[in-house]
Each structure stands twice: as C-alpha cells, then as structure tokens.
Amino acid sequence: MQALEFWSLGFTPLPISAVSGTGTGELLDLVCSGLKKIEDPENLDGEENYVPAIAIVGRPNVGKSSILNALVGEDRTIVSPVSGTTRDAIDTEFTGPDGQKYRLIDTAGIRRRAAVASSGSTTEALSVNRAFRAIRRSDVVALVIEAMACITEQDYRIAERIEREGKGCLIVVNKWDTIPNKNQQTATYYEQDVREKLRVLGWAPIVYSTAIAGHSVDKIIVAASTVEKERSRRLSTSILNQVVQEALAFKSPPRNRGGKRGRVYYCTQAAIRPPTFVFFVNDAKLFPETYRRYMEKQLRSDAGFSGTPIRLLWRSRRKIEKNGVGKANQGSCSLVKFNRIITP
Asked: Tell me, what's a Pfam family for it (predicted)?
C-alpha cells in the first residue's frame, strides 16, 4: 500500500524487502546504472595491451613443442622423440586468425614427483617448478595428453593443479592419428573415458589434433580464445538472479535435522578470472555440498562459463541481537571449489 501512495504522487517506487531479499537485485542494478564510470588511463592502457597467456603443459613427450611450432608456423622449439628435450618455459608471441595476440608458453614435461626425486636430476626438478609457475602466470592452460596413452594418474594431478589455480583449461588429445580403426563413434567413446578419469575438468572442452602433421591445431587457438572470453565474462545481477530463482524453483534446498531450510535472498557476481559469485543466504550451514554442486551445475547449464572454473561464495545474513548490534554467524562464508568446500 505504501508503494501505491508514491505512485499517486508521480514517483516510480521500487518495492523491496530487506528480510527476504525481494527486489534487492533490481535495486543494485539501478544504483550501479547511475554511477559514472571513471576511466583510469593506466587501467585502460592495461586492458588494451592485455595479451592472454596460454601455457602448454603435460607429461613428457606428448607433443607440446610440436603444438607450439605448428601454431606459430616455424620451428621455435626443438622437437625430439627423446623425452625431456624441453628444459625451460619458453614464451612466444603469436597472433591468431582474428588478430588477437597471445603469449604461448611451452613447458617442460611434468613427471611424477617420485620419479623426479629418484632420478636425482636438479635440472629436471627446476624444469618442473618452472612448468608449475607457467601455469600460475597463464590465463588458459592447454593440457596435452597422448591419444594412445590416454589418461594417467599424473595427468589427473596436473588437472588438479590447473583447477586449484583457477585457470581456464582445454584438453588437447594429441597424436590422434595413432588411434587405429577410427570411426564416427571413436571420439565419442574417447571423450567419455576422458570425462570419467578427469572429472575435476568436466567443464573443459576437448580438442583432437595431430601437431606434427599440422592437423586441427588451429582449433586449439579457437578453443583457447573462447575459454578466455568465458573466463572474463560478467553476468548482470538481474539475469544471474533469474537463473538462481529457476534453479531454486526446480529443486529447493533440503531441510536439516532440525527442520530448517536454507533460503537464498539474492546473488551477485563479485569477480572474473575466474568468475566468482556471492550467494546471500539465511545460513550458509544449511546448504550441503551436494546442493552447492547442484547450483554450480545449474549456473553452467543456464549461463555457460565453459572452459573455466567458477567459485561460489555463500554468505550468511547478519543476525540482529537485542542490543541492536549486528553479529555475523560463525562460519558464515564458505568458498566452494568444485567438489570441495573451503572455509576461510
């Protein structure tokens, strides 16, 4: 009724509820639309000169250097059937078909820590450390696996490092020509095997290539460019909350043993690279890991974000005590990283 009275005076009110969170997303969008954007010349120049870095990583002798040479069109790195030829992370500037510049980082093969330690080679240990640093300073990681070898435990360890660092990723199945008797179903069956063994990268696109012959290497850059755009994408608060409300309507949060049920008031995107979303809820403890994974799955299904990990931050509503002093719930924030819940 109070809102209707303002309409009669010629105003356009925005009804909201701070308790339930109704209308708060629209209010935030309206406030942000009225703010003037102040362009920082230094940041503006930084965005214009921004060159995405693509790290090419994997086990020894899977064809990482061959991929880099095929992409740039010349022999920038030494290619040899002997594993361990590449010893250092090599940066190479590259311009894609669309004119976008990239920095390609060829890295040394990453063997298991026990294998490196048993070899007693200080050089190899340093090379592996440089490869891990290349992942950390990259934007997108191309995880290269050998088609005939398929997925090994070491591939899974590298995949975990990529997801933990919050980097975009694509899986490159190299030496695809070595698979005998291929047919239309071969790639489908192979992808099922990769998804089963690399569940931590279930969101990463897969590219099949034969780098030494130059087959399908251009698809690697196309996929990497798409991943970088998805990793840098930002959703408006209104669209994001529409996706969240549809997910809540399809499946409500479960009740705990005391009969309490979690409530989501609204959600907003707090950061990019990787995309980070903040859920404002009544109590973060009422949302179990299974439901958080469900919400992440719905976000990917309805909003995209292919090729990039996403982070979900759950924030509890502050309880107002009798003395009027707001006190946050203990453990009110928790960061969801795929299948793991981390409480800062």
From this structure: KH_dom-like
Contacts of residue 122, defined as CB under 8 A and 6 or more positions apart, other chains included, come to none
**Residues 91 and 187 grouped into a single domain:** yes
The torsion angle over the Cα atoms of residues 146, 148, 151 and 152, rounded to 10 degrees, is -90
| pLDDT for the residue 319 | 52
Assign 3-state DSSP to the chain and report helix, strand, coil percentages, each to 5.
40, 20, 40
* Residue 268 in tokens: 């907003």
Q: Are residue 252 and residue 159 in the same domain, yes or no? A: no
Work out how many domains the chain is built from and give that number: 2
Chosen domain end from 231, 252, 274: 231
Spatial distance between the Cα atoms of 171 and 179, rounded to a whole number of angstroms: 17
Q: In CATH, what number is assigned to the domain containing residue 133?
A: 3.40.50.300
244 and 141 both lie in a single domain: no
On whether the CB atoms of residues 120 and 114 are closer than 8 A, the answer is no
Residue 235, both tokens: 């959703």
Alpha carbon distance 267, 281 (integer Å)? 9
d(CA 214, CA 133): 28
User: 294 with 150, same domain?
Assistant: no
Buried b (16+ CB within 10 A) or exposed e, 108-144: bbbbeeeebeeeeeeebeebbebbbebbeebbbbbbb
CA dist., res. 82 & res. 123, Å (int): 16
Cα–Cα distance, 226 to 219 (Å, whole number): 11
Alpha helices in the chain (DSSP H): 2-8, 24-33, 41-48, 64-72, 113-119, 122-136, 153-165, 186-197, 218-231, 237-250, 289-303
Q: In this structure, are residues 307 and 226 in contact, taking their beta carbons and an 8 Å threshold?
A: yes
Successive 10-residue mean pLDDT values, the chain, 344 residues:
69 76 76 66 58 93 90 70 56 86 87 60 70 93 93 91 96 95 92 95 96 93 95 94 96 93 95 96 95 96 95 82 46 44 36
User: How is residue 188 written in tokens?
Assistant: 């489908």
**How many Cβ atoms are within 10 Å of 5's Cβ, its own excluded?**
10
pLDDT at 77: 62
